[in-house]
Amino acid sequence: MDSKMTTTTFDILGHKVVRSLGVVRGVTVRSRGLGGQVMAQLRTLGGGQIYEYVQLCEQSRAEAFDYMMQHADKIGANAVIGVRYDATDLGNNMTEVLAYGTAVVVEPE
What we know:
Blueprint: E1 15-31, H1 34-46, H2 51-74, E2 79-91, E3 94-108
Antiparallel strand pairs: 1-3, 2-3
């Protein structure tokens, strides 16, 4: 599926939804390695952006998004609308990231 066929809104400009296939989701649980945790803790002493955690968040969101797209592809969707992300701390340095939306079939108007 073309990743350009996703949106946080409930329509895609120039297309009409012809079939809704239901909710699709992608979930991942990630943790920072010990070396990254140590570096991040040291960075907190100086303040500012903590690159190790920014990178972890970006990777986690991308992975959850990819899983969501695979789920949509598997059920025959060519677009996902209403895309959202959610994150939950599961424990010390573990985070669940969820990407979800509505899988649809769209056609050009």
